[in-house]
Amino acid sequence: MSKNVTATAFVVAEFRAEENAETAPLYTDNVVKIWLNEETKRIAGEIAQNSPAAKEMIKLRTKYFDDVLSNQILAGCKQVVILGSGLDTRAARMNGESVAYWEIDDRATLELKASTLKANKVTANVRYIPGDYVQDDLIALLKQNDFDFEQATYFLWEGNTTLLAKKDVIFVLEQIRDNVKSFKLSFDYMSEKVIARTTGYQDINDYIDKYESMYAPWITGFENIETLTEELQLKIIDNFSTAELHQQYRPHRSLESNLLKFYFVCTLENAV
Ligand SMILES: C[S@@+](CC[C@H](N)C(=O)[O-])C[C@H]1O[C@@H](n2cnc3c(N)ncnc32)[C@H](O)[C@@H]1O
């Protein structure tokens, strides 16, 4: 994991926080502001200038994942695992009765997270697991941290798959499938066309080129999630492009970027 990949978490937090200022916000995140400072504002500003779509992508996915998670909690799910959690605030914001969270990210990010939450007197029922969920064996990491493999679990994997090698994305899905008895799992992903620069939209190619020169490269996309899930014997619960989410959540606003047509969120479950 490069330092730049880790730094993306701060940019995400900046964009996520902005929605709070809307008159009818898609979600409310009163915790996220504790991570923000002049430096994060400056870097996020540079990316936003390059493409306003970046902000909208984060806000739409935040709303979608918040809704799926809160429905999972309402349905009685007591275990939530957040992979590559960065500055995700859900363990503090969405802490239904006796819901336990596990968050995996690198040590520096998690230490900063724990200390900032403590300094701001924000509590969360969360276990931080420092490590790399690909290199360090996700299942071993969970085992060492009192995770119950027999209990229904919700996995959230937000803002990660594009940055990983495809084989690693598949490996993680297989690990969860083969070890967790009953789960639902949500993640976001790019169309493979975006990675291959074959969307036919020059603005998208320009966007990635600039993003990658400032930040982390986009490595992996999926053209057909049905094929992937069939191969892995998983079931699709939802699969939406963020353009569809935009239409649903913001019916009176026009789409700011073609990129939203190629950026997806999905929720899968194990086929029992
Ligand atoms: C773009 S940020 C997204 C953070 C958060 N999920 C969100 O959406 O706000 C990506 C995060 O995933 C973490 N990450 C990426 N690959 C990882 C891996 N293999 N193991 C652990 N953490 C990883 C990075 O350190 C970073 O904090």
Structure description:
The chain has 272 residues and is α/β, with parallel strands linked by helices. The chain has one domain: Vaccinia Virus protein VP39 (Rossmann fold), CATH 3.40.50. 44% of the residues lie in helices and 17% in strands. The chain has 11 helices and 7 strands. The protein has a 7-stranded mixed sheet with strand order 3-2-1-4-5-7-6, sandwiched between helices. Helix 3 crosses helix 11. Bound molecules: S-adenosylmethionine. S-adenosylmethionine binds next to helix 1 and strand 2. The site of S-adenosylmethionine (SAM) has 22 residues, from helix 1 and strand 2.
- Average pLDDT score: 93
Structural class by SSE content: alpha/beta
How is the main sheet built? 7 strands, mixed
Beta content comes to 15-25%
Query: In CATH, what is the homologous superfamily?
Result: Vaccinia Virus protein VP39
Biggest sheet strand order reads 3-2-1-4-5-7-6
Q: Helical region count?
A: 11
Distance between the termini: 34 Å
Tell me which ligands are bound.
Answer: S-adenosylmethionine
Brief descriptors of the model:
272 residues; alpha/beta; Rossmann fold; binds S-adenosylmethionine
Task: Give a brief description.
This protein has 11 helices and 7 strands.
